[in-house]
Design brief:
Helix content is about 45%, strand content about 15%. It has a 3-stranded parallel sheet, with helices on one face. Strands 1-2 form a two-stranded antiparallel sheet. The protein is α/β, with parallel strands linked by helices. The protein has a domain of about 80 residues: Rossmann fold. Strand 3, helix 3 and strand 4 form a beta-alpha-beta unit.
Length: about 120
């Protein structure tokens, strides 16, 4: 069994580099331009309703950063929202509480009936 020299995936021919690695071309993205475009979109949406955006808050670092970014950097009126799927750990609930309090955002949590959730999980 041969493996690609770059990614260690199996190779089924005589090559030393797999087709995916051979065809890979790194993207050249102008992140500053993307930031300007994003801010323009945000500016167009500001002030059209009670909230400028909704941020799904899970209590993890990524969603907490998005909440911070939208509330403090973009200065949007944010509604933070959590869908309680019964798998959120206590530390995540604490992180959610801290983020919402520190950033002074409105917050809503949606909870399903536990029996309905169980049926949903069994069906999927």
């Amino acid at each position: 069994m041969k493996r690609c020299e770059k990614c260690i995936m199996r190779i089924y021919d005589k090559e030393t580099i797999c087709q995916e690695c051979e065809n890979y071309k790194p993207l050249s993205i102008d992140w500053r331009q993307k930031e300007r475009e994003f801010r323009k979109i945000c500016d167009l949406k500001k002030g059209k309703g009670k909230y400028d955006c909704i941020v799904l808050l899970t209590g993890g670092k990524d969603s907490s950063y998005v909440l911070y970014y939208m509330a403090k950097i973009i200065k949007a009126r944010v509604l933070a929202y959590t869908w309680d799927n019964e798998f959120i750990r206590p530390i995540a609930w604490e992180n959610i509480k801290n983020a919402v309090e520190c950033l002074k955002c409105d917050y809503r949590v949606h909870r399903y009936d536990k029996e309905k959730l169980k049926k949903l999980y069994r069906a999927t």
